[in-house]
Amino acid sequence: MPPPRKQHSSKNVFQEDEQENAQPKIAWEVRISQDPAALELAPDAIRANKEVVLGAVKRSGWVLQYAAEELLADKEVVLEAVASSWGEALQFVPEELMKDEAFMLDAVERDVQSLKFASKRLRRNAAFMRKALEQSWMALGFTDEFLKNDRDFVLAAVQEGGLALMHASEALKNDRSIAYEAVKENWQAIDYVSAELLADREIAHEAVKQNWRALLKVAPSLRADRQITLDAVSQCWIAMQYVSEELRSSKDLAMEAVKQSWEALQYVSSDLRGSRDIVLVAVKQSGEALALASPAMRADWDIVHQAILTDWRALRHADHSLRSDKALVLKALLSNGLALQYAAEELRSDQDLITAAMERDWDPLGLAVTPLFPKEDGLNHNFWVLASSRRPSQKIVQATLHS
Prior knowledge:
It is built from 24 helices and no strands.
């Protein structure tokens, strides 16, 4: 039988283990190295051991709260805790450290969020906050409201990082120079400029040059600006769906988009979906582009021929007049006999086409409109002999010969 399970008393497990261990300090060091949270239950001597506490806060700055009081003022220990707690460890340290300019800059270097614990005097100090900005533009978010309204200070902030504009006062978000500098540094700052400045062409153009998605954020009137939209579409054809209706009729803009992807054809004007130059570029990429072309293009022999060469399935999108064109249907069948299903009904009983369709497989035979078994009005006996000779192993063909 296995030995009975040891019954533990209600006292702390660590304390019990310590009594059984001849070297409790070493035991606590091992425990804390494995689980920094064990510092909370450690004896005072361990919580005052700088080496042990340093090792713990390097892994989790939050355990600084369990350190001995004298270590809460130890800058080396605290800075290690700051680095591994997103700055939150500062809530456990003496207030005097939050007033120390040099120390707080060291803390900001490790994590900018340390600034939320800085003294109000420091957060109103322009010289100190400029040094903090050099560490991270996000420092503006923790500065005093007084500095968020300081034009020169905010300008310096957005030049460090455009997204700092989100922390500027509403009045300065409407400052054209500041907004432009912010967007110039990072196009995503367009999210924070005032509604009025979203209609500023220079600011909008600067954002779009960096990323076409900015076109979605600028004033609708600027989506009719030829240069701005061309810069957007040149980066990505998807931008074509956001340009003005007028510019969807621009041939050079449409051509730029369609060259990137045939799918852009759906966003150009109906007139341009009837442009042979543009449609030809599209169908060379995908036969499915024929479905987006105008009726006139779907009845154009050269266009449909090119679409079929790209993908035989394009035949289904062709005008009926071309699905009745034997030569064109034959082109599709030479790629895949299953194209017979897209031929006009009158061609699906044509022996030449059915024979061509069966060159690789007998499956297309089921797509013919002619009755399967020979009759007076069906396929003649010679056809079935030919079919059988090409596919002698197909029982269905053999069965027709003996019916």
